[in-house]
Amino acid sequence: MRRKMVAGNWKMNGTASSLTELGNLAYSCKSAKAEVLICPPATLLYRAANVCTDSKVEVGAQDCHSATYGAHTGDLSAEMLHDAGATAVILGHSERRADHGETDQVVRAKAKTAITAGLTAIICVGETLADREAGKTLAVVGAQLASSLPDDTRGTTVVVAYEPVWAIGTGKVPTVEQIAEVHNDLRASLVKRFGGETANAIRLLYGGSVKASNAKEIFAVAQVDGALVGGASLKAADFAPIVAALDAST
Ligand SMILES: O=C[C@H](O)COP(=O)(O)O
């Protein structure tokens, strides 16, 4: 049985004052059954981890370098993030693929390093609107999955987040049938590649304009094990009901 998960991605938002929201969230989630993760900017990781000590909320990072150390000015290694208190890292988010030219091969290298450092790698895949309109959704997402996941993946070391690029921050959400189609295809691809035992332990999150008002119907989709949430993760009052909806779906 896969443990449900809801991860909040603060993206490039948040300063020290935002830690109050994190404290509020930790309080609101004190009885959460699902794994709850907040990924603040790296500047807040250490303090966020301290705020969440002895709570049900874990903290994660939004990216790491593929190397373990060295001359990479401005970058952070997976080991450093782990050292700061992170338990997971988001990799290959479409914003990083677009803003920083990250390829599937780069994402795969980062995932390997993250897993070695003891972090859960949350690997993002998703089609653009042009891909979807051209009928290429499953081909594009399948290719990203195949090339971004390392071969030595174990069920609990990676999480896959399906995030249609056109749904991120837009308020547009795929139909539950569209989400189901992609998640079923992702699960089938994982089973084919890794075998049932490993594949069925990998959690599949949906991301893209998830909010309290649509969480229940998204979480009712069979292969959806939780969500990767952007905008609605910034305020405890918005995020806690999503966690509650996920708990209610289990
Ligand atoms: O990482 C989170 C996703 O990009 C979703 O963002 P959003 O919930 O603001 O659409």
Short description:
The chain is of the alpha/beta class.
Q: Pairing-aware structural class of the strands and helices?
A: alpha/beta
Could you tell me the strand content as a percent range?
A: 15-25%
Q: What's the arrangement of strands in the largest beta sheet?
A: 1-2-3-4-5-6-7-8
Which regions are unreliable across 5 or more consecutive residues at pLDDT < 50?
none
Task: Give the biggest sheet.
Answer: 8 strands, parallel, barrel
What is the helix/strand order? EHEHEHEHHEHHEHHEHEH
Tertiary shape: globular
| CATH architecture descriptor | Alpha-Beta Barrel
User: Which whole number gives the mean pLDDT?
Assistant: 97
Walkthrough of the structure:
Substrate binds at residues 9-11, 169, 209, 230-231. It is an enzyme of class 5 (isomerase). It holds the Pfam family TIM. Pathway: Carbohydrate metabolism; erythritol degradation; Carbohydrate degradation; glycolysis; D-glyceraldehyde 3-phosphate from glycerone phosphate: step 1/1; Carbohydrate biosynthesis; gluconeogenesis. With 250 residues, the chain is α/β, with parallel strands linked by helices. It has a single domain (5-249), classed as TIM Barrel (Alpha-Beta Barrel). It has 11 helices and 8 strands. The protein has helices spanning 19-28, 45-51, 78-83, 94-100, 104-116, 129-133, 137-148, 176-194, 196-199, 212-219, 236-249, and strands spanning 5-9, 35-39, 57-61, 88-91, 120-125, 158-162, 203-207, 226-229. Strands 1-2-3-4-5-6-7-8 form an 8-stranded parallel barrel, surrounded by 6 helices. The longest helix has 19 residues, at 176-194. The protein is globular and about 45 Å long. 46% of the residues are buried. It binds glyceraldehyde-3-phosphate. Glyceraldehyde-3-phosphate is lined by residues 9, 93, 163, 168-169, 207-210, 228-232.
